[in-house]
Description:
The complex is a heterotrimer.
Chain A: E1 2-6, E2 15-21, E3 24-28, H1 33-44, E4 47-48, E5 51-56, E6 63-68, E7 72-73, H2 77-86, E8 88-89, E9 98-100, E10 110-112
Parallel strand pairs in A: 5-8
Antiparallel strand pairs in A: 1-2, 2-3, 4-7, 5-6, 6-10, 9-10
Chain B: E1 3-11, H1 15-25, E2 31-34, E3 50-52, E4 61-62, H2 63-76, E5 79-82, E6 85-92, E7 97-103, E8 107-118, E9 122-124, H3 127-130, E10 140-142, H4 143-151, E11 155-156, E12 160-164, H5 168-178, E13 183-188, H6 198-205, E14 212-213, E15 216-222, E16 229-236, E17 239-240, E18 246-249, E19 252-255, E20 259-261, H7 264-268, E21 293-295, H8 306-324, E22 333-338, E23 342-346, E24 349-351, E25 356-362, E26 366-375, E27 378-388, E28 394-398, E29 407-408, E30 411-412, E31 415-419
Parallel strand pairs in B: 1-2, 1-8, 2-5, 8-21, 10-19, 12-13, 12-19, 13-14, 22-31
Antiparallel strand pairs in B: 3-4, 6-7, 7-8, 9-20, 15-16, 16-17, 16-18, 22-24, 23-25, 25-28, 26-27, 26-31, 29-30
Chain C: E1 7-13, H1 17-26, E2 33-36, E3 53-54, H2 65-84, E4 88-89, E5 93-97, H3 100-116, E6 122-125, H4 126-132, E7 142-146, E8 150-152, H5 154-167, E9 171-173, E10 178-183, E11 188-192, E12 197-205, H6 211-217, E13 226-235, E14 246-249, E15 259-262, E16 268-271, E17 275-276, H7 287-300, E18 309-319, E19 326-329, E20 336-340, H8 346-363, H9 389-398, E21 405-407, E22 412-413, H10 414-422, H11 428-435, H12 448-460, E23 478-479
Parallel strand pairs in C: 1-2, 1-12, 2-9, 5-14, 12-20
Antiparallel strand pairs in C: 3-8, 4-8, 5-7, 6-7, 10-11, 11-12, 13-16, 13-17, 13-18, 15-16, 19-20, 21-22
Helix pairs in contact in C: 1-5, 1-8, 2-8, 10-11, 10-12
Amino acid sequence: MDNEVICLSCPNGCRISVKQDRNGFIFEGAKCERGESYAYQEVTDPKRVVTAVIRTNSEILPYIPVKTDKPISKKYVRAILKEIYKHEIKLPVRCGDVVISNFMDTGVNVVVTRSFPL
Amino acid sequence: MKEKIYDVAIIGAGAAGMASALEIASTGARVVVIDREPHLGGILLQCIHNGFGLHLFKEELTGPEYAERFISEIKRKDIDILLNSTATRMAVFQTIKQINVCSSEHGVFKVNAKAIVLAMGCRERNRGNLGIPGTRPAGIFTAGLAQRLLNIDGYLPGKRVVIVGSGDIGLIMARRLTWTGAEVLGVVEILPYPSGLTRNIVQCLYDYDIPLYLSHVITKIEGRDRVEAVEVTPLENGIPNQSKSFRIECDTLLFSVGLVPENELTQSAGIKINPETGGPIVDARLMTSAEGVFACGNVLHVHDLVDWVSQEAQLCGKEVVAFLEGKTRDETQGRVSVGANLKYVIPNKYRLKTKNRFSMRALVVQDKATLMIKQGERVVKRLPLRHVKPAEMFHVEIKSEDLDEVYENGEPLPLQFSLE
Amino acid sequence: MNIKEKIYDVAVIGAGCCGASIVRKLSAYDLSVVLLEKCVDIGFGVSKANSGIIHAGFHHPVTSLKARLEIRGNLMFDQLHYELNFPFKRIGIIVAAFSIEEMKTVEHLYAQGIANGVPRLEVCSRERILSLEPQLNPDVVGGLFAPTGGIVEPYRYVFALVESAEKNGVEVKKNFTVWRGVRKEDYWMIESKEGEFVKAKYVVNSAGLYADEVSKAFNAEEFKIIPRKGEEFLLQRNARGLPSHVIFPVPGKHTKGVLVIPTVEGTLMVGPTAEEIEDKEDLSTTYQNLEKVFVQATYMVPKISRREIITSFAGLRPTLPSNDFYIEPSKKQPNFIQVAGIQSPGLTASPAIGEYVKDILKNCGLKLIEKTDYDPYLPKPVKVRELSFEELERLIESDPRYGNIVCRCETVSEAEIIEAIRKGHTTLDGIKFYTRAGMGLCQGAFCSYRILKIIAREVGIPIEKITKRGGDSWIIYKRLQDIDLNQ
Lengths: 118, 420, 487
């Protein structure tokens, strides 16, 4: 498996080439160690914070924003979005309220990011 | 309610308005914040993605979370808030500044204040500004309007989307639309490099295999009723090569092609505008050409990060307080002159005996540049910069001890900025 | 009598400035009149892209029908403005000459204008013309000044005419695309593509670009309308190059050239180009024409800047090979009046065309009896933007929706939007042309979502059903809650 990862650990944005042989991964192009561990994460199990909006029961604010409280494996992004769109929540809500907890045993929760009414 | 009297009136309740309001109200001054929207927070409320607050709060927040930090504090303070209220006119008299405000709830009334903070933010450049040829069908949106429709109102504007310009709002919208089931068919950027952050290029485009066409332009919009397709053409030596044009069928076009400070109200009061920034010309106190009228945030110049907006607004708030206390009335200030390879430097004046902070943008893309700051012939500061580009604002601070107290015609010597 | 069986006295096809003027004129008489329009709103064809100039009447020789109607039309605008309150100003027209050769043409235009009866025409020296219009390039050598020229907001003008006509009993049918006309014993049966029928004793064909097709659909004369495209560019309010008169170059053989036009609303328009094309729906603009327009405009007024462009658009002039208006009763079909080839100066001539067509109808046997209750007046529409503090204060007290400013660039209130909807303008463009909401600097980026919500609420339709200008011009694809990520 050959791959190129752009490191996002710092503004340098190193382009790290990743090769895999029998002994594991070989990284080239990283200016620091953080780059290698970033690239390792990216090729083994890349994770992302997902943000979206959830329907509410209110006409004043029909949608409320949410996010995953930590990055979730990319392979779950679609699944968690589907789950989010299924939900409807009742106002009032507070920033940090958990809407979906421990999604598919990933330890990731979906939380509200806007209190309403404030 | 025909007239209301305050020490300070702030126009705009976004990042800049809120931060300056908090700063000013902390001294006990009577402050009013006026905003046309029904909520405090401004555009931050529609920026539901994360990435805000790393500098100010040392953590990654979404737009609404970032806004809420300020909103909760404002609610704890004795600050008057006028929402759903549009400032329609502004007049500057010797000691009193007057704003006409219009709302359904309170009718039309005048707000009189000793000082005004302009914090109206910016608006998006659009298709018309660019003069992009073709038809004028439905389905052409600015990225920010699409963001608002999707994130606040829950309306998906289209299903096959092309994005013009690789600014951050456009990139964020590419991912957001993908996450909503729309197909983003490409991002077309006129420059040879992307305008947005690398992180957004990777996480919003590469993650979803969305093509990024650098050095490409839209040469035609097709469709009579609704957008049907765009013609994309590569630039060769700066000229579109029509023999290599290709067509992308789509129903929606988003423009993310830059922001312009929103200064129609400012201009109606006769305040001078800097053509390079689109914002008012300000002195070292962030005061405009009208005595007692200050400006901060995106209405002054467009920032890359909201953290910088809040910071500038806090600084502005402190200056408003000093002004109200009469501390800065007879200050002498020197000119700031913008030299080679720089687009602008804010503020447009500096002062002696105190720290000065400047924000600026380069005109060029360059590795290993040096920012030179001279007072007369003497080099005050030589700042090496790893990489500069017009899309990235940078800051510099000059300590008071680095500045000479040399005058010329009663003014401190001009401070000259250039990039080498 | 059953509505379906109703036979109108007159059906006018096409709700542009001509059709609107004709029905408004007829509304003063005891007649039943219907105005048929294929678009979703009136004035959405040729008229909406009009430059809005009220010409003085020196461009065409008096031998042409269009010159006669132009001069008569120009004179009628003060009265119309007084009655209907659409935005109109007689700011004067200047023709700027940049060579001795061009001054010769100016003198010819002057002589032609005098022969046509244009009042107060003046040939100007360099000093005189520069003092009249300091925005002109100082290289100007002289020119012509026609103080009776003016500007009008073309869509407001059409809206006002139709509103006045409706007030006096004229019916308007939109989304009615005439497909064919069948002669019955003593009336015409007009069928629409949408499957509707209208019966009328007299038919007026003022269908603009489609007048040739309508004529064919009635088995009347065969002719061909050639669309002549004009691209225009709109610059922001208080543009640096804003002149106080309409500025013309010395005209070429076929067109009046690229003009610099201060609009009634304070913006600045430059254009139009002139290019004969085939496609009657081709409203596209090109980069080459932007270049051309700005080179020519900045030559006359150097301070005009591209950086101040708000938007660009294109319009089509419906021209005939004769280059004159074709207004006469059909020689092939009874009670069928042709009003075709109404290109520039059609807007200026339109009030006179209304009168002229009324006389033709009379000669064809239509009985004209003046109504006793004819009311020519329309109230001045409320524009929050133009009100004084005190006026606005009183207004918001009576209706708080005047205090909700929906469009910040043009200061348009919710009440004005609702008024537009109430008058039948339920598309985004209809509301834009009626109220100016979305016409300013941000081009709707801040107000479209607000307007969409107001339309949905007032009309009682879901937002997905709202269009920009009818047809397939939908704006919103779906609501988030209706989205299926599995698709």
